[in-house]
Design goal:
This protein is mainly β. It has a domain of 48 residues. Helices cover 0% and strands 39% of the residues.
Length: 74
């Protein structure tokens, strides 16, 4: 499926999504924030054990793959 330009989703849909980097390492998006210092959207990542790893700028994951979770994550 191709995603057309100018498509939008509610940013909260990212919570619970599996993010896979270029090295095939999997993370779960556990939260979303906004850095007041750098004016960037930040993505909170957990590893496969559910342990918090880092908050990374959204821009830094643009080349990663994503698998959305269809269940509600709190």
């Amino acid at each position: 499926m191709d995603i057309l330009g100018l498509s939008t989703i509610d940013i909260n849909c990212l919570k619970g999504a599996m993010l896979i980097n270029k090295n095939d390492v999997q993370y779960m998006c556990s939260g979303i924030g906004f850095s007041l210092d750098t004016h960037e959207v930040m993505i909170d990542l957990k590893d496969s054990d559910g342990i918090f790893c880092a908050s990374v700028p959204f821009e830094s994951i643009k080349d990663w793959s994503i698998q959305f979770n269809t269940t509600q994550v709190y």
